[in-house]
Amino acid sequence: MPVFNLCLKIIRKNWISISIYLAIFLVISVLLSTNSAPKETHNFSQEKAKLVFISKDHTPLTEGFRKELAKSATFVKIPDNTEKLQDALFFRQATYILRIPKGFTENVLNGGSMQLEKTIVPNSAENAYVDLSVNQYWRLAKLYAKHEPQLSEKQLADKLSANFSHNTPIEMKAQIRAKTDQGFSMYYFNFLAYTLSAVLILGISTVMIVFNKNDLRRRNFCSPVHASSINSQMILANLLFAAISWVILVGFCFIFDSKNIMTPNMIYFLLNSAVFTLCISCISYLIGNLLGNLRNMSAVCNVVTLGPCFISGVFVPQQFLGETILKIARFTPTYWYVQANDEISQLTRFTWTDLSPVFYNIAVLIGFSLAFLALSLVVGKRKRLTDR
Amino acid sequence: MIIQVKNLVKRYGDLVALDHLSFNVKEGEIVGLLGPNGSGKSTAIHCILSLLKYDKGDIEIFGKKMTPDAYDVKRDIGLVMQNVAVFDELTVYENINYFCGLYVRDRAERKRLVDEAIAFVELEAFKKFYPKKLSGGLLRRLNIACGIAHKPKLIILDEPTVAVDPQSRNKILEGIEHLNAQGATIVYTSHYMEEVEQICSRIVIIDKGRVIASGTKEELKAMITLGEKITVEVFTIEEDQLRVLREQPGIMSVDYVSKQLIIKSDKGNNNLEIVLEFLKANHIGFGRIYSELPTLNDVFLEITGKQLRD
């Protein structure tokens, strides 16, 4: 397959410039994806207060209480000095200072009304968990003391510990789609649209432009190799290059977001990006057939790559873009690719109903691919006939 | 018959590029298509190779009708184009190997042919060079190597010596004669009459898309009335003496330009003797004397009334 081998040689010859593109885009993609990915997750996880625990009453119950608090707070060690404690609150080293006065256990068990001393940072939601723990623990201690007065403090502390060891299992039922931890992947795969477009247009168009030089095309045409064979060898080589580029770029996503490799969302991200790669390959093939020389390629590459990325939500999320811009963007495959990524990132269930919008977007991408392929074949044939 | 072209017509809009062009090429010949720029030589070549659609006519190569899908016919044709058609991304060796690979699948056989082609155009020292590093002459040689590496039976060379230095030109011409000696039939287009005269066994002169004359160079020269061109360095001569000279038997025309007396005479006469006797009898002092036989340019001039390089 001389044409196939030659295509690969031409790509290899341009490999340095392609690699530079690839490296720069990768760094930008990773940086932007890391910074753009939402920091907070929308799944349930308990917040913890930063707690300074000062106990002047050393009993088995206060010790048990301390252990229990550890579940809802992170202990911070600050010396018991008013100024230092105030500084700690001011600088948010601590959000909750809890002081147990001497004789507190005895007072509570005997039905007294002695109170814990607390100093908190105002409006800190996480402190509510500490308040809850305090109330639960000491109310239950009071209850046990009242109804089982024979229990020693140690036994009482054990019973309380056993009581609080039970957790209620919680099952999240996503009534509306819960946001999953696919932030990095979503942003990375969105930016992939830019990287893939630039690299593929550069590589594939270069091959096509070189082959479409009039004299070289004529010389090839004079050979006994069938025109269809020349075309298929070129398409095969370009597809191989596209596949290698896709594997490299996707491989980097696996490295930077390894925890999500095995999620079902990743499978759909991969499927979507693979179809998009095919679509961009067809566009590159068309550009290569339309362009006459390598000088214009850089400008065309920038326009074709950056334009759709700007209006389709690769750099700025689609929800921040105007309706008119999005209407225009619908005529570009990048829009449907980004749409599919957004849908995939929000998937928590994988029923047909949940997946159908993803498949719809992918189907549109396949439609674009077929249209561009047909167009480039028509342009190529027309060019050959006009030349004759 | 290797090539048979009958009544070939090619129009570009209102312009008739080929006007019922007919000629043929026999096995083992070096046929030169000679004509000024724009006469239709390259168009004819492109039509013969099915690179261009033509409006009318028949083209047969190796006895088969030539069409874009005539892959069996293409297998035995080698093409050297007017412009250098090589890949800048490939080295000299890789370029020849690629073009040879379009015809020859067997690797060992291809390697042998590529090495032979490199040796033939004397590019051994430049095997690993990229085309951009080669001079114009070397590039032309590479262009030829790419066209002939697969040892075709028919080689078509479209102005292969354009913008080539004299040394490279001689090497190319010697190479073409060598290829012919090895058994290849050659079609050579050029507007350099000296080249065509030097290597072609038969010449087809084309003008305005038509064949205006064809034959061996001797046959072509025999077609015209001009037999000899005598140039004499004369320091001074009167208009009356010129008129008398013009009336001498066998003299066709007499011109006196820049102290050069140019006399064109008929074939078969002892013109030089007549001229010298006339100069002596009229006491006209003269210096160097040249006598030239007619060239293809004279043939072209007499048939069309214009110079080949007009």
TrEMBL record, chain A:
<dbReference type="InterPro" id="IPR013525">
    <property type="entry name" value="ABC2_TM"/>
</dbReference>
<feature type="transmembrane region" description="Helical">
    <location>
        <begin position="15"/>
        <end position="34"/>
    </location>
</feature>
<dbReference type="InterPro" id="IPR051449">
    <property type="entry name" value="ABC-2_transporter_component"/>
</dbReference>
<feature type="transmembrane region" description="Helical">
    <location>
        <begin position="358"/>
        <end position="379"/>
    </location>
</feature>
<keyword id="KW-1003">Cell membrane</keyword>
<feature type="domain" description="ABC-2 type transporter transmembrane">
    <location>
        <begin position="16"/>
        <end position="377"/>
    </location>
</feature>
<keyword id="KW-0812">Transmembrane</keyword>
<keyword id="KW-0472">Membrane</keyword>
<keyword id="KW-1133">Transmembrane helix</keyword>
<feature type="transmembrane region" description="Helical">
    <location>
        <begin position="268"/>
        <end position="287"/>
    </location>
</feature>
<feature type="transmembrane region" description="Helical">
    <location>
        <begin position="235"/>
        <end position="256"/>
    </location>
</feature>
<protein>
    <submittedName>
        <fullName>ABC transporter permease</fullName>
    </submittedName>
</protein>
<feature type="transmembrane region" description="Helical">
    <location>
        <begin position="187"/>
        <end position="211"/>
    </location>
</feature>
<dbReference type="Pfam" id="PF12698">
    <property type="entry name" value="ABC2_membrane_3"/>
</dbReference>
Automatic annotation (TrEMBL), chain B:
<keyword id="KW-0067">ATP-binding</keyword>
<feature type="domain" description="ABC transporter">
    <location>
        <begin position="3"/>
        <end position="233"/>
    </location>
</feature>
<dbReference type="GO" id="GO:0005524">
    <property type="term" value="F:ATP binding"/>
</dbReference>
<dbReference type="InterPro" id="IPR025302">
    <property type="entry name" value="DrrA1/2-like_C"/>
</dbReference>
<dbReference type="InterPro" id="IPR027417">
    <property type="entry name" value="P-loop_NTPase"/>
</dbReference>
<keyword id="KW-0547">Nucleotide-binding</keyword>
<dbReference type="InterPro" id="IPR003439">
    <property type="entry name" value="ABC_transporter-like_ATP-bd"/>
</dbReference>
<dbReference type="Pfam" id="PF00005">
    <property type="entry name" value="ABC_tran"/>
</dbReference>
<dbReference type="Pfam" id="PF13732">
    <property type="entry name" value="DrrA1-3_C"/>
</dbReference>
<protein>
    <submittedName>
        <fullName>ATP-binding cassette domain-containing protein</fullName>
    </submittedName>
</protein>
<keyword id="KW-0813">Transport</keyword>
<dbReference type="InterPro" id="IPR003593">
    <property type="entry name" value="AAA+_ATPase"/>
</dbReference>
